[in-house]
Every structure is written in C-alpha cells, then in structure tokens.
C-alpha cells in the first residue's frame, strides 16, 4: 500500500501541474478531476475508504460539475461551437484518460493485494467524518459553501460583461471585413474599366 500511496501522490502532483498549465479551461478541469481521483486513491491507501468515496462524490463529482457549468455559462459567444469542436478532438482527452487508467490499475492492484485495507479496524466510518465536519469544523464547511457561491456569482458577473464586449468586437470586425471586401470589389471593377479604356 505504501507504493500505491506514493504512485497516486506523484500522479496527483503531475495532474495538478497539467491542470495549472493548460490554456483551455475544459482541459484543466479534466486534469483536475484526475488529480482529485488520485487524492481519493491516497485516502484509500491510508485506510479511509469512506473519505475516498466522499472525495470522488463531492469533489470529483459535484464540485467539478459546478465548474463545468460555470465554464459553459461563460462560453456563450458566437464562436463557441468552433471551440467546442476543438475540445472534442481525441488529443485533448488522451492525457487525462491515460492518467485515469494508471489510477484504475493502481486501485485494482491495491485492492487485490491488500484486502486488509478495508477491514473495520483501519477504516474511518461515516459517523466519524460527520462528527469531525459538523462538530469542530462546521464553520469551515459553511464558509467553503459561501465561498463557492460567491465565486459562482462573481464568475457570472464578470463573464456577462466579457461576453457582451466579445460580441460587440465580433460584430465590429465582421462589419469591417464586409466593408473592406466591398471596397476591394469596387476598386477592382473601376481599375479594370479605366485600364480597358
């Protein structure tokens, strides 16, 4: 289990570095999901399968769905379909899929070789997690939920203005292109008639 712990930790660090360095938000979110799954494997290797399940359900599940919702909400420009087509290319899914496959192999190996990790003496139950979260750390849980709500409202406010400006810029550049094209046609036509005369 020690080898599993260190491999998952290295994988979490690598996936987090990729999440920070990606230009596209969806690619970064995919690597962040892999990083959170690696942390869940670390919790499992430490003998806390319930905390690992919570990590997968809450962070890799619910929080990432919230992040994807915000990314989708902020990407409402006219060229959004072209950007989404670029995201669906297999190259963008290859890295996260490979790291997730490594995690799956590690988890299967750890489960097969060490069944004692799931024994009741090593595991942390739901009651212990609930008492810890809503006992002495209840204010932290509530502040984290308020922080997520404030981030969502702030992202919506900033994204709405950015989308409006991008739409105006796109319309202005399209109109300028149309005007330039028409003037080129007029100049070409007038030059052709004067040259022929």
- Name the CATH architecture of the largest domain: Up-down Bundle
Can you identify the CATH superfamily of the largest domain? NADH-ubiquinone/plastoquinone oxidoreductase chain 6, subunit NuoJ
Derived structural class: mainly alpha
Q: Major sheet: size, sense and barrel closure? A: none
CATH class category label of the largest domain: Mainly Alpha
What share of the residues does DSSP label as strand, in percent?
under 5%
Q: Please report the number of helical segments.
A: 7
Overall pLDDT score: 75
Overall shape: it is flat
Helix content: over 70%
Quick rundown:
The chain has 197 residues and is mostly helical. 86% of the residues lie in helices and 0% in strands. The termini are far apart.
Reconstruct the topology from this structure.
Layout: H1 2-21, H2 25-45, H3 49-74, H4 80-87, H5 90-113, H6 126-136, H7 138-196
Tell me what you see in this structure.
The chain is mostly helical and 197 residues long. It folds into 2 domains: 1-124, Up-down Bundle (Four Helix Bundle (Hemerythrin (Met), subunit A)), CATH 1.20.120; 137-197. The chain is 86% helix and 0% strand. The chain contains 7 helices and no strands. It has helices at 2-21, 25-45, 49-74, 80-87, 90-113, 126-136, 138-196. Helix 1 (2-21) packs antiparallel against helix 2 (25-45), helix 1 (2-21) packs antiparallel against helix 5 and helix 6 crosses helix 7.
């Amino acid at each position: 289990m020690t080898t599993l712990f260190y491999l998952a930790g290295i994988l979490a660090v690598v996936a987090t570095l990729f999440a920070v360095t990606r230009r596209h938000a969806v690619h970064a979110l995919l690597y962040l999901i892999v990083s959170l799954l690696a942390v869940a494997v670390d919790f499992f290797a430490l003998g806390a399968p319930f905390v690992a399940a919570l990590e997968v359900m809450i962070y890799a599940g619910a929080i990432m769905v919230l992040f994807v919702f915000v990314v989708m909400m902020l990407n409402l420009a006219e060229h959004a379909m072209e950007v989404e087509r670029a995201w669906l290319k297999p190259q963008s899914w290859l890295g996260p899929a490979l790291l997730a496959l490594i995690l799956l192999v590690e988890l299967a190996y750890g489960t097969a070789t060490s069944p004692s990790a799931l024994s009741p003496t090593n595991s942390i139950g739901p009651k212990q997690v609930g008492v810890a979260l809503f006992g002495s750390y209840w204010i932290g849980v509530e502040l984290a939920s308020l922080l997520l709500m404030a981030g969502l409202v702030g992202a919506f406010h900033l994204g709405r203005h950015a989308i409006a400006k991008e739409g105006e810029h796109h319309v202005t550049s399209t109109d300028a292109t149309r005007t330039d094209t028409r003037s080129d046609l007029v100049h070409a036509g007038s030059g052709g008639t004067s040259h022929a005369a």
